[in-house]
């Protein structure tokens, strides 16, 4: 079968809270392998839209289509199993477990495997090998035995990304991944996202516009729940409508 034209499509997706249209008929496409950012002033609807895509919240109207398949009716964990995986703005780690255990747990939950004594040794070795490789990718290899709760803020954010990647996503959604990070940690994260294999599509919501413009190849702008424009970073930066949306916020 031909590869789907879009990794993800939103078709008229809406979320109304009473009279407030937090997300108002948003239609946009995310290309396979792209680093696609969603930006917009505070209250624009970014977090709500993210929840609708991930399935944390069910849209009032519209469709969410993952690699050509309508996932609108699916729950969040069912979307995870189909390769749509998000990290959380607030930590969802198992803090008493080690860094390595957090990765292995995530990988098992998605593959439906248990970490029992009767697992074939070869399979356990493979899982462990993959977990160590992910930790190397995010720069946490030296911390594999540390309890997740003992990590610095920036290290936790790195681990959250590794946990999301352990779920073998086709689309990974990062919700403000650089929030609270030092400049050095932000730099490392930017490189990590940049170096992810082209088979992984990245969708991120981010306040830090320098990070967005340095990393993203596509940028969608939300304003008052509506999709204002999608373009490459230069087009979005040059847009008068985008400037006004930020200044008027
Ligand atoms: P952003 O992430 O871009 O700052 P949000 O998606 O958090 O924006 O919020 C968009 C709008 O929806 C805001 O006006 C916010 O106050 C409102 N909103 C968000 N969540 C809820 C909710 N659970 N109930 C009512 N209003 C909400
Ligand atoms: Mg938000």
Please give a structural write-up.
The chain is of the alpha/beta class and 249 residues long. The protein folds into two domains: 1-83 and 169-249, P-loop containing nucleotide triphosphate hydrolases (Rossmann fold); 96-168, no CATH class. The protein has nine helices and ten strands. The strands form two sheets. The chain has a six-stranded mixed β-sheet with strand order 6-7-8-3-9-10, sandwiched between helices. The protein has a four-stranded antiparallel β-sheet with strand order 2-1-4-5, covered by helices on one side. Strand 1 and strand 2 (20-30) form a beta hairpin. Helix 3 (99-111) packs parallel to helix 5 (153-166) and helix 4 (121-138) packs across helix 5 (153-166). The chain is globular, with a radius of gyration of 18 Å. It starts with 7 loop residues before the first strand and ends with a helix. The model has no long low-confidence stretch (mean pLDDT 89). Adenosine-5'-diphosphate is lined by residues 17, 20, 22, 40, 42-48. One of its GO terms (cellular component) is plasma membrane. One of its GO terms (molecular function) is ATP binding.
């Amino acid at each position: 079968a031909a590869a789907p034209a879009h990794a993800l499509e939103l078709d008229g997706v809406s979320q109304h809270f009473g009279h407030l249209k937090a997300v108002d008929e948003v239609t946009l496409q995310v290309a396979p392998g792209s680093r696609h950012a969603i930006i917009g002033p505070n209250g624009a609807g970014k977090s709500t839209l993210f929840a609708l895509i991930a399935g944390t919240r069910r849209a009032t109207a519209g469709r969410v289509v993952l690699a050509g398949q309508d996932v609108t009716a699916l729950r969040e964990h069912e979307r995870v199993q189909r390769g749509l995986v998000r990290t959380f703005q607030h930590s969802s780690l198992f803090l008493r477990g080690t860094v390595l255990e957090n990765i292995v747990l995530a990988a098992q939950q998605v593959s439906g495997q248990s970490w029992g004594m009767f697992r074939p040794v070869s399979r356990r070795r493979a899982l462990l090998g993959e977990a160590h490789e992910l930790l190397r990718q995010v720069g946490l290899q030296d911390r594999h035995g540390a309890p997740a709760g003992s990590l610095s803020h920036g290290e936790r954010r790195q681990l959250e990304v590794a946990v999301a990647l352990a779920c073998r996503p086709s689309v990974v959604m990062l919700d403000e991944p650089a929030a609270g990070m030092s400049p050095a940690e932000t730099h490392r994260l930017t490189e990590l996202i940049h170096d992810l294999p082209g088979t992984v599509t990245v969708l991120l919501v981010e306040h830090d516009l320098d990070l967005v413009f340095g990393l993203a190849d596509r940028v969608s702008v939300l304003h008052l729940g509506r999709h204002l424009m999608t373009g490459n970073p230069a087009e979005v930066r040059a847009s008068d409508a985008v400037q006004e949306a930020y200044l008027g916020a």
